[in-house]
Each structure stands twice: as C-alpha cells, then as structure tokens.
Design a protein that fits this description.
The complex is a heterodimer of chains A (428) and B (266). Chain A is α/β, with parallel strands linked by helices and 428 residues long. Chain A has 16 helices and 16 strands. In chain A, the strands form 4 sheets. Chain A has a 6-stranded mixed sheet with strand order 5-6-16-11-12-15, with helices on both faces. A 4-stranded antiparallel sheet of chain A has the order 3-4-14-13. A 4-stranded parallel sheet of chain A has the order 9-8-7-10, with helices on both faces. The N and C termini of chain A lie far apart (54 Å). The longest helix of chain B is centred in the C-terminal third of the chain and has 27 residues. Classes of the chains: A alpha/beta (428), B alpha/beta (266). The complex binds pyridoxal-5'-phosphate.
C-alpha cells in the first residue's frame, strides 16, 4: 500500500520524509544517468519503481526504522569533543557512525537494500568492496535475511584488509578476489557489474556508495540520509536550536558525505567534502576526483573521474582503501557545480594526524577514511579558505579504526612514535 | 547507409553474415588481423577501441584491451591506422562511452568517419542515453548499432530495432563477452524475437565461439559476431594468420550449412 508518509518513527529511530528525486533518468544537474549495457536496463527500471514504491510505503519505512534501531543501534550519538576543541580553537561535534553495528555508516544502506531485495523476491546478493566495510556490512545483512552473498574485492585489497576478508567468510559470504585492471575497488565494481549482467534475473547488486547508474545514487542517499537528519536535530539540542557553521565529511564514493549533507542542505551550514589527497595532488597519486578529475562516464553515471587525456580511467591512491576510488557520486558533482558544497582534500599524512589527534585527545580511534576529515580540519583552522577560529564544526565519523589497526601497526607505527609490529610470518 | 546496405545485399545473396572482432592497437598484429579476417570471408569487421574499464567484456578482450593500452593505443592513433586500410567491406568501431565523451561526441564521430569507419557500437550507451551521440553520429553519416538483450521487453525491443542502424546486435546470452562451451539456450529465442520485430539484419553476438555455434545461431539469425575466439588467436601468438584461418573455418561451415539447407529445401 502506498501512502505519502511524513515522518516515520520506530524503534527509537526517526526518518524524515522522502527527499527529492533526481530529474528524468537520474539526473542531478548535468550528472548521473543510466549508462549501462542494455541487459541491465530493465532491471534498473524495475528497481527504480520498486524503490520509489517502497520508500513511500509506511510499512517498509517502519521496518527499516525498526531495524536501524534494534539491529544497527541507531540513533548514533553526537559527541562533543572538548579536548580536541580546545586544541584546535573551534567547537567540534562528531556524528558517531563508528558506533553502529559493523562499525560504519555502511550498515544504513545495506539494511535498506536488503529489505528491498526481499521485497523484490530475490534470494541472492552481490557487492563490491574496497576496505571491506561495505562487504562486511553486506555479508552481515545477507546472514540476517538468509540471502546468498558474494563479494567482489580487488586482490590488492584482499591482501591489505585480510581481517575483513575473514570476517565476510565467517559471516557466510563468498569473497571473490578480482585480479583484473588495477585489482582495487574500481575493478571490483567492474567485475560485480559483469557478474550482474549474467545474473540479473535472480540477483540484486547491493552497491556500496552513491555511485553507479540510476537509481543507486538516489536510493543510497535516501538510505544514508538518516545520518544527517539525526545529526541536525541532535546539533540543535546541543547548540540551543542553532545549526553548526560547518559540516565536514570524507568522500570516497560519497555516501556518508551525501547522507550527512542532505540533512543540512537547507540550513546555512557550509558543507565540505574531504577527498583522499594521497601523496599530494601534484604527485598524481591520490583519489581526489572532484579536485583533480574531469567529467566523464564510468560505472553507469556521468560524474567526475580521474582520467588521462584519452579518457582512460586512472588508478586512485590512498592510505585508506575506502577512499581509493577514481570517481565520485554524481550528486556531489552537482553540488560542486552549484557551489552548495565545497570539496577539499587531505593527504595520507594528514589522515594519520587525524588518527593521532582523535585517539590521543578523545580516546576514539577513527577509521582512516574519516581521519581524512579530522586531519583536514586540524590543518584548516584559521586558514583563509579553511575554518574560522571559534566556528562550530560537525564532522561525520563514518567508521571506527579497528579494521585499520593491523595496517597502522605494521606500516605507520612511526607516525605515532611507536615501533612497528611485525606481521606474523609463520606458515599457515 | 553503407553498413546496412552492404549487409542487406549480402543477406539477399543468400549469405550468412560474419562479423569478426579485433582489438585495435593490439601490438603488431591487429592491422594484419583485420586484413586476414576480411580476406577469410568476413562481411564487416568490428574493431575495438580499448578502454581501461570494459564492463561488457570478459577476460580475453579485457586482456587484449590492457595489452593494447600498455603499448600506447589511442582513439586517434587507431583511427589513423584504420584510414590506411583497403579491405573492401565495412568497418565498425566498438568502444565505451568515456573515451567518446572525453573527446566529445562530434569530434569522435567525425574522427571515425574520416578514418573510413561506417558504424559504431557503444554498449554502455543504451537507448535512453542515446540522443546526444546519435545526433552527432547521424550528422556525419555514421551508423550506430544498438544492442538488444534477452532481458529486453518487447515494446523496448521494437524501439531498439527502429533506432538501430547497420544491423541489430542481439546479445545471445545473459553475460559478457568470452568463449562458451555451447550456444546459450537463450540465443535462438533472441534471434527469433529480432526477426519477428525488424527486417534489419539480425546479428547475434557475445559468447559465440566456434563454427558449430555459429551455424546453430544462424539457423535463426542473419549472422554472428565472433570476438573473443578471434582475439584469443592473437593473444596466444598465432598472429593474423591464425585469426584468418579461424574465421575461414567459420565461413566454410556457414557456407556448407547453407548449401545443405538449400539441398533439403530444393
Ligand atoms: C568508514 C568508511 N568511511 C567512508 C568510506 C567511503 O565511502 P563513502 O564515501 O561512500 O562514504 C568507507 C568505504 O569503505 C568507509 O569504510
């Protein structure tokens, strides 16, 4: 049954009414679209209709809200960071997506898509993953809903994030290492799309960010916007009805950032997305698609992509596997074009500063992805194009650092003044 | 309408259409391979302009694309070489949206036409996103071949057949390019649906690997595209000669099948 819900409340979770749909075939300004092989078009058209209907169906929304509460642990709190604030000379609030079940904002999207998979009568899901967070989240909901699950992961990332590979397998998912191309996230998306072309009649593809063909950028935004909608109300409680001056989030594909921004797009807050600066934009080894890419078409959508002068997609580079993607969601491209959001970047080194600051001053170990947002902020306070001293800043802490502990211990211990921990080389 | 006219004429003469695919820029061999497969009885040759992220392609064409890119293949370079070919049959280019959009639709279409290319296939540009490209291609007389898939519903199939130029490319299976052990169970139904919907040449491709499968496909379709099997000949070092010989065996099988069908009918 379709109604026009206003707000939905269940399990202590509050969902704002559905947001605006992109125009036509998934257009956000000049960006978006459905650039896919013909085989997939009918499935994407069905998915569009199915999502639109579900998203206006009170029963679906209530079940989604109930799961976000009882299963994922929402609402996630907003934490005021007193010591970090004193250190930086601004007021810092953190939206704590790190406290969700499975440790990141990714659970919001996958719960929504798993409900939709069941509603469409499909019994099997596939996903791509970079850091493994989306893969773990997908494997988790697949177990919860009794769905067969296969996760595509670049073989380089399988190596970098071995613990998450084990987690996915423990949860019952099949992990397929992808060796094509650069063997990282973009290639995992390629192989997931190729497999979906062959299995589309029985399988739903749970895409992990606000990228890909219509309706994914819209649908994933809607499933992630609970982050920003909650944070807005929580900030108003803390700030006596005011909104923060600045809202900051890291941008890989852009799902935690768009989920956050959507809650504040109608306020006066500045919205700032922080991309992976890798070893510096001049080095060419980065993941800053909005800062250094140009418009192009990949993975089903028109957006910004890192590419060479002939339109070949370039490899991204980042200390964090979750930001290691040479593109960005089309709605971010549109927000950049309209000027409503600003996009900057933080290098690998700045991300490590972010980890250290939050760990030492607040006792919170962030994932490397949102550590970029913290590191950017630490560098930006007082800068002309940065953040004024005395500002109030909300940062989305999209995930916790457990998944990165091994990598930090082996390769970056020096950044914390520590001795590296040697990897156990015993034969298995 | 050179591509479509040529294929219609070949079909009218009782011939089954054979369209081999060669990855453009594939180190040293690709130009000779085009000549060899043309010589071996092709009715048109499909040339891939490689892209870094070919989502409609399986392992063989992925590898060929990356090898070509590694030795510096570019759209401009490939077209400059194509312009020197004199093979007497139409050429069509298969590539992905991004290299085309990056150069600009008008410039890309013009580049192809100036190189003597007659048609283009851009598999990640479905009907719904087609207009800007088809306007640019149409303006310079380039024919755009559209794909139809087993998942395409009938009303959409009708619109695809109306807008496809040169021929209609029926995808023979659910999946990406690459050799298969047998013809897909969906192939013949795909071809029959196309034949019921249009009188444009109906050509099956994706996953058609050898003479036996080509003959079976052509029991319902007007012709076949053979991609990965030809490219494999080149990747495994057999050179243009091996590719030509492979295509010749398929042409021979199609001719023999046609002759025995005629004998039965006669
Ligand atoms: C904790 C965390 N934050 C951010 C990201 C980046 O994704 P997005 O930009 O879609 O939020 C990831 C991706 O794996 C992640 O695991």
């Amino acid at each position: 049954m379709t109604t026009s819900p206003s707000t939905t409340r269940a399990g202590g979770v509050h969902l704002d009414p559905p947001g605006p749909e992109p125009v036509g075939l998934g257009r956000f300004g000049d960006f978006g679209g459905m650039y896919v092989p013909e085989t997939l078009v009918p499935a994407l058209e069905d998915l569009t209709v199915e999502f639109r209907t579900a998203w206006h169906d009170t029963a679906f929304r209530t079940e989604f809200a109930e799961l976000l509460g009882s299963y994922a642990g929402r609402p996630s709190p907003v934490t005021e960071c007193h010591r970090l604030s004193a250190h930086l000379g601004i007021r810092v609030l953190l939206k704590r997506e790190d406290l969700n079940h499975t440790g990141s904002h990714k659970i919001n999207n996958v719960l929504g898509q798993a409900l939709l998979t069941r509603r469409m009568g499909k019994k099997r899901v596939i996903a791509e993953t970079g850091a493994g967070q989306h893969g773990v989240a997908t494997a988790t909901v697949a177990a919860l809903f009794g769905l067969e699950c296969r996760v595509y992961m670049g073989s380089v990332d399988v190596e970098r994030q071995a613990l998450n590979v084990f987690r996915m397998r423990l949860l019952g998912a099949e992990v397929v290492p992808v060796t094509s191309g650069s063997a990282t996230l973009k290639d995992a998306v390629n192989d997931a799309l190729r497999h979906w072309v062959a299995s589309v009649e029985t399988t739903h593809y749970i895409l992990g960010s606000v990228v890909g063909p219509h309706p994914f950028p819209w649908m994933v935004r809607e499933f992630c916007r609970v982050v920003g909608d909650e944070a807005r109300e929580q900030c108003r409680l803390i700030l006596d009805g005011r909104d923060p001056d600045v809202v900051v989030a890291c941008v890989g594909g852009g799902s935690n950032a768009i989920g956050t921004f959507t809650g504040f797009v109608d306020t006066d807050a500045r919205l700032i997305g922080v991309e992976a600066g890798g070893q510096g934009l001049e080095s060419g080894r980065h993941g800053a698609a909005l800062s250094r890419g140009v418009p192009g078409i990949l993975h089903g959508a028109r957006s910004y992509f890192m590419q060479d002068e002939h339109g070949q997609i370039l490899e991204a580079h980042s200390i964090s596997a979750g930001l290691d993607y040479p593109g960005v969601g089309p709605e971010h491209a549109s927000l950049k074009a309209s000027g409503r959001a600003e996009y900057s970047h933080a290098t690998d080194e700045m991300a490590l500063v972010g980890v250290r600051l939050l760990a030492r001053l607040e006792g919170i170990m962030p994932a490397l992805e949102p550590a970029h947002a913290i590191g950017w902020l630490a560098d930006a306070v007082g800068r002309a194009d940065g953040v004024a001293v005395g500002s109030t800043v909300l940062i989305t802490l999209s995930g916790r650092g457990d998944k990165d502990a091994e990598q930090l211990a082996e390769r970056y211990a020096g950044a914390f003044g520590l001795e590296p921990v040697e990897r156990d080389e015993r034969p298995r | 309408m050179k591509l479509e006219a040529h294929l219609r004429q070949a079909r009218a003469s009782g011939r089954k259409l054979l369209v081999p695919y060669v990855t453009g820029g594939l180190g040293g061999v690709w130009m000779e391979a085009i000549e060899a497969v043309a010589e071996a009885g092709a009715d048109a040759v499909e040339v891939g302009i490689p892209f870094s992220d070919p989502v409609m392609d399986g392992p063989t064409i992925q590898e060929a694309s990356l090898r070509a890119l590694d030795v510096g293949a570019t759209p401009a370079g490939i077209n400059a070489d194509l312009a020197t070919l004199r093979i007497g049959i139409p050429l069509l280019v298969m590539t992905y949206c991004n290299p085309v959009a990056h150069m600009g639709f008008e410039r890309f279409a013009t580049l192809l036409v100036e190189a003597g290319v007659d048609g283009a296939i851009v598999p990640d540009l479905p009907l719904d996103e087609l207009d800007p490209w088809s306007d640019a291609a149409g303006a310079v007389g380039l024919e755009t071949v559209l794909l139809a898939a087993p998942t395409t519903p009938d009303d959409r199939l009708r619109r695809i057949c109306e807008r496809s130029q040169g021929f209609v490319y029926g995808v023979s299976l659910l999946g990406v390019t690459g050799e298969r052990l047998a013809l897909s169970s969906q192939a013949l139904e795909m071809a029959r649906r196309l034949k019921r919907t249009t009188d444009k040449p109906a050509v099956l491709g994706v996953g058609i690997s050898n003479a036996e499968q080509a003959v079976e496909a052509c029991s319902a379709a007007d012709g076949v595209v053979i991609g990965s099997a030809v490219v494999r000949c080149l990747l495994s070092g057999g050179g243009a000669e091996a590719a030509g010989a492979y295509v010749a065996t398929i042409r021979q099988a199609l001719t023999d099948a046609g002759a025995s069908a005629d004998a039965v009918a006669g």
